[in-house]
Amino acid sequence: MRAFALALLLAGIAAEVAAQPAGEQVEPAEPPTLPTDDELATYLADPSTTAEQAYRIGARMFNAQRYEAAEKAWLRAYSLGRDPKLLVAVADTRQRRDDAPGAVAMLEQYLVMRPDAPDRASIEARIATLLKSRARLVVRSLEPGHAILLDGVPFGEKTPATLEVEPGEHTVVVVGDGRQVGEETVRVAYGEVRQLDFTPQTPSAVLVEENEEAKLQEQLAKEEEDTTIRRAVIATGAVSAATLVAGTVLGVLAFRKEQDYNDNPSKQIADQGDRLALFADLSFGIAALSAITSFTLFMTHKNKRKRERETARLEIRTRGAGATATLRF
Fold this sequence. Notes:
Blueprint: H1 2-18, H2 37-45, H3 51-63, H4 67-81, H5 85-96, H6 100-113, H7 120-131, E1 135-141, E2 147-150, E3 153-154, E4 161-165, E5 168-175, E6 181-188, E7 193-198, E8 207-209, H8 212-263, H9 267-310, E9 313-319, E10 322-328
Parallel strand pairs: 1-7, 8-10
Antiparallel strand pairs: 1-4, 2-3, 2-5, 5-6, 9-10
Helix pairs in contact: 1-2, 2-4, 3-4, 4-5, 5-6, 6-7, 8-9
């Protein structure tokens, strides 16, 4: 079926070429629809395919975001026409596929092939930028939600996650629920994307153990902190309630003094009413402040405990020639 479709494609191109008047320049025909990868490979390998045709089909592939196919077409066009500008086009496809080293190689080859290139400055700047690209480690595990250590430091996200790292050697450790451990040491270049898949069979020199004494101490510390926060919440809540009652009583007394002043105006009654109103306002202010403090303490502590439940904390300790990873939830 593919051979038949390709035959129709080539027959259409031949018919369009034959329809051109004699002596007139023939424009290469393009397929009406994008070919599959196999059809494209056959089309590019055909001796009758020109550099212009290969370039145009590559441009269509590029616009369709089929970057690998576009690269193949443009490399074929370059081999047929030796146009150095096609090397920049190939670099574009590689950069969009996160292949920074491959893009740099094409750009450097372009400068070698075209030493007097008018865009040399911009190409060199582009190369310099690519050389500063950080590598990426895509870490996945058989079961998602496992904790990650990068070079011995806990990483903020769990699997699956993408880690941006500097070029060089890095060690990634993935720890599950105490039954699954994986460790890999990799060396990555600038802009490189490396995928790491961890399974229960992934070899590791890391031991996972639960320290019961540390776990007990942590639990006691949590209970002590919970008790302290609970007492603070109750105390500030009690202060808020007491000052609210006091403010209400003082407000009622100030209102009565105002009525007495209306019935029998005197400076003494006015001063007493003003003082009572002032103390009532202060009491209401203290009540509001205490209520806000109590609510803030409660919510902050509640959110802290929630984060601790959701995030696994990892500790690394040396033991002999190896390392021990202690996982606590």
